[in-house]
Design goal:
2 copies of one chain form a homodimer. By secondary structure, chain A is mainly α. Chain A is about 55% helix and about 5% strand. Chain A has a domain of about 70 residues: Arc Repressor Mutant, subunit A. In chain A, a hairpin with an 8-residue loop joins strand 1 and strand 2. Chain A binds a DNA duplex through helix 4. Chains A, B: This is Transcriptional regulator.
Chain lengths: ~120, ~120
DNA sequence: GCCGTATAAAACCTTTAAGTTAAATAACTG
DNA sequence: CAGTTATTTAACTTAAAGGTTTTATACGGC
């Protein structure tokens, strides 16, 4: 998976409007106008956000009369998940997640609780 | 988890230099100069990237003589993972991931390996 | 063919991101 | 204290992001 690809995906996700659009699309395919409705923002602005999401592969656009329906394509999110997995052990072992870690590794009862400090 | 927080995390991750820095820090704490070495980029540029990572909570900085060691803090990545989980079912059911989905839901043993084509 | 609706494109503005170089700060070393 | 190393700050440049308004395109209904 190319670096550029992750660049596009992460920067698409870095905007709250775009994440809200994805959340809406998780409920089902809809039109640009309906997507735009919750935002105090012009239509063209939404069109631009959709372009960013499309470039990241996160949405697919159809064509139905004068509407261009958008639907979610979550495949890129799986790539993000896969990238994240490399770091899983780090958040699992971080201070406030130590308990989760202990559950996961299933050590015996008397391993010492020593951590880096 | 506030929207701003995810904004910061995602935009910190949207740059390949910063992701490379995180990858390096996964190997252990190190200094700014050593972090800068692999990149054809001035020191101050790296300092800026570190500021972005720090603002996102992804690194922690120490102080040791004239060095300012950086270490990874992956806790924000867990927030990303949690956010992603909302979309898990979408990538699992998407066309080209159908096989994985079938494995996961534990259908009977003779589902063939057919994929879209 | 013309009108209304849905969407996109163009042109523009403002802010922020990412880099640069040069100067400043901080800490060790002799 | 002067010099060297590590890092940050300041000032600046360039380009991209995110918004605007105005204009164009595409389609369905009359």
């Amino acid at each position: 998976m190319s670096s550029d690809r992750l660049d596009n995906i992460f920067s698409a996700l870095a905007d709250p409007t775009r994440r809200a659009i994805l959340a809406r699309l998780a409920l089902g395919t809809t039109t640009v106008t309906e997507l735009a409705e919750p935002f105090r923002m012009s239509g063209p602005a939404v069109t631009k956000h959709l372009k960013v999401l499309e470039r990241a592969g996160l949405i697919i656009r159809g064509r139905e009369a004068q509407w261009r329906p958008c639907s979610l394509d979550a495949a890129p999110l799986k790539e993000v998940r896969d990238w994240l997995e490399h770091y899983r052990r780090f958040w699992e072992t971080s201070f406030d997640r130590l308990d989760e870690y202990l559950q996961e590794v299933q050590t015996n009862g008397d391993h010492d609780g020593q951590d880096k400090n």
